[in-house]
Specification:
It is a multi-pass membrane protein. By secondary structure, this protein is mainly alpha-helical. It has 16 helices and 3 strands. Strand 1 and strand 2 form a beta hairpin. Helix 13 packs across helix 14.
């Protein structure tokens, strides 16, 4: 009988999720106005339940669906990190995992995240392990996440592993945010500069051109060049727009579908001054922290390296980690395998060697990760300070040059008078 009840619970959860939501208003026995919402088959059942609780319903109607965003926003890695932290905290406090899932689902504002948590909870209630339940959602929970959970369940330290995963995800997302900040700011400024230049060329320059026609004088070469650019933009703006969109789409598709192009792109980025060093440090930090977390969770080193290979964020380092995995699998020490790639600094290799000799590889790798994450933070802050004056010069030359080019004929005419 117990088995039949455990199997029925997920179906009950799914049925409850499928019921429509009704919003209600009413007054209690003291005349106090109350309101709320509840899932039910129809409005009559809602009214009956409210009367049973001593509430006189005045309004009972289906909850209106929002015009936009009814399905909820996409689930982000930060959502998964927050989910991991909450589950770990509640399990450490002695709350059973199913109850923890129920509490988390009830507090979710994102319908997609709520549905995901309820599905995982239903699978666990039906007898699946957490690893098996997460394996049905590989998009949200990658191989590394699932392997860590499996190792934690096998060792009986799931709450500790979940706490480690939460810390890991939070640190990795913070690191990603720093890298995006380093790339986003200059890209946005360049985009704004192009937009402002296009507006000037399409709408402002033609106005000046009409004025210049009344001068009946030869225009400066610089002004003629700007007018020619304006004429080209007005005539062929649609072709330039289509070409730009086509290039962006082709670039994204090629990067996703061509490993050779992705490898070339990542290798090129690593050679860019300043930016390249930030990407090197970020890849080393992610490699070190990910390997430390997996190794600490009890995952064998070769299997850990297999999971880590996709977490570095750079194809060059991904291939290097795969070579390290192959070397370790045939008997090489980790530090020797790392040295052969010629990608890891001497300090990182030596820290790995000390960790292997002392039996504290995870602790040493955590220290390496912290050091390189701080290096990335410092480099991003320094880059922002360096880029700001360069951006001001770039905007001044671009926009100011066009303005000067338009006023040159007026200056020339004033000098002749």
């Amino acid at each position: 009988m117990a088995a039949s009840r455990s199997v029925a619970k997920p179906e009950t959860v799914r049925r409850a999720e499928a019921l429509p939501i009704f919003v209600w208003q009413g007054t209690d026995k003291r005349g106090v106005k109350m309101k709320g919402e509840v899932p039910a088959r129809n409005a009559n059942l809602v009214r009956a339940e409210l009367r049973r609780q001593g509430i006189t319903p005045t309004v009972v109607k289906p909850k209106p669906k929002p015009l936009f965003g009814g399905a909820g926003r996409a689930i982000t890695p930060r959502d998964i990190a927050f989910f991991s932290r909450q589950i770990a905290t509640m399990m450490k406090s002695g709350v059973p995992i199913v109850t923890s899932m129920e509490i988390l689902a009830g507090g979710q504002k994102n319908p997609r995240m709520k549905s995901l948590i309820n599905t995982i909870r239903a699978d666990i209630e039906s007898g699946s392990s957490l690893y098996e339940a997460l394996s049905k959602h590989p998009v949200q929970f990658d191989e590394l996440y699932r392997n860590l959970v499996r190792a934690g369940e096998s060792a009986g330290v799931l709450e500790t592993v979940l706490d480690t995963i939460a810390t890991y995800k939070e640190n990795i997302e913070t690191l990603k945010g720093k890298i995006k900040k380093a790339m986003f700011y200059p890209a946005m400024v360049v985009a704004v500069a192009i937009l402002v230049s296009s507006i000037l060329l399409i709408w402002v320059v033609p106005q000046f051109e009409e004025v210049f026609k009344g001068f009946d004088a030869d225009l400066p070469a610089f002004t003629k060049m700007i007018i020619a650019m304006s004429d080209f933009m007005i005539s062929w703006w649609w072709l330039m727009l289509l070409g730009t969109v086509g290039l962006v789409v082709a670039f994204i598709m090629l990067k996703k579908r061509s490993p050779a192009f992705a490898h070339f792109l990542d290798r090129t980025v690593l050679k860019v001054p300043v930016i390249g060093q930030i990407m090197h440090n970020a890849a080393i930090a992610r490699f070190s922290r990910t390997l430390a977390v997996t190794f600490k969770a009890g995952v064998p080193l070769v299997e850990a390296l297999d999971s880590v290979s996709g977490a570095t964020g750079n194809m060059v380092y991904t291939e290097a980690v795969r070579r390290i995995r192959d070397d370790v699998a045939v008997g090489y020490q980790l530090n020797m395998a790392m040295k052969q790639t010629n990608l890891f600094p001497h300090m990182v290799v030596q820290m790995a060697a000390i960790g292997e000799e002392a039996g504290a590889l995870d602790a040493m790798l955590f220290k390496v990760a912290e050091y390189y994450e701080q290096e990335v933070n410092n480099a991003v802050d320094a880059l922002a300070s360096l880029i700001e004056p360069l951006i001001m010069v770039f905007l001044g030359v671009l926009v100011g040059g066009m303005v000067i080019g338009m006023y040159l004929p007026i200056f020339k005419l004033a000098g002749a008078v």
